[in-house]
């Protein structure tokens, strides 16, 4: 079944790319979500509608969780659930940048079994199943395996490396880089182009589900900030931060964090 689901997700992701391309760099209608949840565009909603119609028609017994669909607790009654971000990196999409992605996953009883992250304007399609390799455009990829933090490249926001979030107020000696799509960040770690990605803020499942499987099948360790493996289709669809890295670097990053009780109550909203 994961292989059949993967084929379905790949076809849906490519169809999403065609829809998004029709809006990209065409000044799509844009507005802000309530509560400071970020921007959304007409393209996000058009992609979401297509994905929901096509995927649910193909798998009517699967639940549905998407950033752009009001959450329905009925998804919790399903053994399998689609977890979708129609456009991850909406700000990049609005700016006409090529770094936005479509992130599609199937979760079964808490674990992701099939996943696709597709960047249509780069024609880069990352994919994995729970029992197969992680791939980029059909070719296997592997995470880097650094044994220390010195000089490591970490995809994260500047606020994450603020001294107050680290034991002894000493951030790791890494080189910080940022990309708008968190799903793509996880895939860049899977590809070995960067050594790690890290966020300390609560992270929505639709941002991380697809990239979680792809990074893990490429040989990276992916957990929440406490070191626990990620679980999906939960009543509260958020993880307590995300750490993804290959080799010993994961241990360095996770072990270097200050305990949550010593953290300030909020972080900046940038993942």
From TrEMBL:
- Which residues constitute the signal peptide according to the record? none
Tell me the residue numbers annotated for binding Mg(2+). 67, 85, 87-88, 207
Xref: InterPro entries: Inositol_monophosphatase-like, Inositol_monophosphatase_CS
Could you state one GO biological process linked to this protein? phosphatidylinositol phosphate biosynthetic process
Q: Which residues form a coiled coil?
A: none
- Keyword Metal-binding assigned to the entry: answer is yes
> What GO molecular function terms would the record report?
inositol monophosphate 1-phosphatase activity; metal ion binding
* Keyword tags: Magnesium, Metal-binding
State the Gene3D superfamilies in the record. Answer: 3.40.190.80, Fructose-1,6-Bisphosphatase, subunit A, domain 1
Could you tell me which SUPFAM superfamilies the record lists for this protein? Answer: Carbohydrate phosphatase
Needed cofactors: Mg(2+)
Q: Which Pfam families match?
A: Inositol_P
Q: Which family does it belong to?
A: Belongs to the inositol monophosphatase superfamily.
| PANTHER family from the UniProt entry | INOSITOL MONOPHOSPHATASE (PTHR20854), INOSITOL-1-MONOPHOSPHATASE-RELATED (PTHR20854:SF4)
Q: What is this protein called?
A: Myo-inositol-1(Or 4)-monophosphatase
Give the source species.
Albidovulum denitrificans
């Amino acid at each position: 079944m994961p292989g059949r689901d993967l084929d379905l997700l790949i076809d849906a992701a490519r169809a999403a790319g065609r829809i998004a391309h029709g809006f990209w760099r065409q000044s799509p209608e844009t507005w802000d979500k309530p509560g400071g949840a970020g921007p959304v565009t007409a393209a996000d909603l058009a992609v979401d509608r297509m994905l929901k119609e096509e995927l649910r028609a193909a798998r009517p017994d699967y639940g549905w969780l998407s950033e752009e669909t009001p959450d329905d607790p009925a998804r919790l009654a399903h053994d399998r659930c689609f977890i979708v971000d129609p456009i991850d990196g909406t700000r990049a999409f609005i700016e006409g940048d090529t770094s936005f992605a479509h992130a599609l996953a199937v979760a079964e009883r808490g674990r992701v079994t099939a996943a696709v992250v597709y960047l249509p304007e780069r024609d880069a399609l990352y994919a994995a199943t729970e029992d197969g390799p992680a791939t980029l455009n059909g070719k296997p990829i592997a995470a880097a395996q650094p044994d220390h933090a010195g000089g490591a490249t970490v995809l994260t926001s500047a606020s994450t490396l603020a001294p107050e979030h680290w034991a002894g107020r000493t951030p790791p000696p890494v080189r910080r880089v940022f990309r708008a799509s968190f799903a793509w960040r996880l895939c860049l770690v899977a590809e070995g182009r960067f050594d790690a990605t890290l966020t300390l803020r609560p992270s929505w499942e639709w941002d991380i589900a697809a990239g979680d499987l792809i990074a893990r099948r490429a040989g990276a360790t992916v957990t929440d900030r406490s070191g626990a493996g990620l679980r999906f289709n939960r009543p509260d669809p958020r993880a307590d931060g995300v750490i993804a890295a290959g080799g010993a670097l994961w241990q360095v990053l996770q072990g270097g964090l200050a305990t949550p009780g010593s953290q300030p109550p909020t972080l900046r909203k940038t993942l």
